[in-house]
Amino acid sequence: MVKIAETANISKLCLIQESIRGTSIIIGENVFIDAFVKIQPVGGTGDIIIGNSCNINSGTTIHSGNGVYIGDNVLIAPNCVLSGSNHQYSDKNVLIRHQGFKPSKGGILIEDDVWIGAGCIILDGAVLKKGCVVGANSLVNSIIPEYAICTGSPAKVISYRE
Q: Which terminus of the chain, N or C, has less C-beta within 10 A?
């Protein structure tokens, strides 16, 4: 099920795929989604929920995996990847494509008033607390505290918003 608020502004060049497993994609009020954004229910049975007044810029990909929750007033810069799942790869005698997915680390939770810089990767188990900032080209696979500013791969806190 795809549910899009009437006030959402979604580019005609954005791809939002309907789930074949029954998961939901819910897009809130006053959301802006740019061209060439892909929102796909793959890699698990979690929902994708995008809160109110969010901006998702060109080239960003969101895979549902074990669930992606994006709070209100979140800004996502161009060319980011949010992937709520992880491929299994441990058995060298089985092709990776046939090994399925690892158990969930909890999906992705992005709280309100978060800014994710260009080219960031947000992985299963990531929690971005209220008001944090993720610097460009960072990889987040853990918990980022409220109002923290983080950068790097993996992302580390470098300071806090004042």
A: C
